[in-house]
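task queued by scheduler; priority normal; single chain, no ligands, no partner chains; default sampling; output format set to structure tokens
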Amino acid sequence: MLRAFYSSATGMHAQERLIDNAANNLANVNTSGFKRSQVEFADLMYNVERAPGASSLQGQIAPIGLQIGNGTRVVGTANDHSQGVSVQTGNPYDVTIEGDGFFKVLMPNGEARFTRDGNFHVNNQGQLVTSAGFLLDPQITVPQDAADFSVSATGEVSFQLNGQLNTLGTLLLSRFVNEQGLQNMGGNLYSATQASGPEIQGQPLTAGFGSLAQGAYEGSNVEVVSELVSLITAQRAYEINSRAIRAGDEMLSNTGQLIR
């Protein structure tokens, strides 16, 4: 009977994690380039009193066994890298990725980070940077007197100067064999890990990479209705687990009264 206490406690703990995750998704519903995450669960080990297929007293093979579980646990959180909504801004420096790929940015210490947030700006040196001021890799420097700044679907960056078309460079994209293995670093940034595999860099619209669109950035892929349903489900599951603990306590109380 006491086993129900521990099993229900694991269920309550798991639902707490689910609510925390849903709350984080909802908090970032307007965060550019944000990818929602979902919690994955697994059941715990079972107490096997009789295994399926064991011989019965009459020498027959039992078609079912007697196995009592010990609750659940959180295996991990997986990011949903599906396409977010495209937010049209008209800002020529904003770029959205339509399809697979990440922008590569460089941290002040030289480490590489990756992002889907294409809300770019130009710093005081004319360099194309993220909202936090991190440089893109490869770097793009826009001349002060440049006009008609343009980014093509294949990532070619150009501008007009004295009536002539000039090329600044090419925006490259990065992708990974296992995007789920990327580590969230905050600030709309990811870092590569052994689980994600090494970075594969290439030009947009080649080798499985997506295309680029100027004048817009990718918004969050959080669906508010789905997250609210997840919150309600987690709350109800938490309540039911707490009722299971209460039922077990009442059964123990009734058993204790039998000896009086």
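post-processing summary
- The chain has a mean pLDDT of 91.
- The first strand starts at residue 37 and ends at 43.
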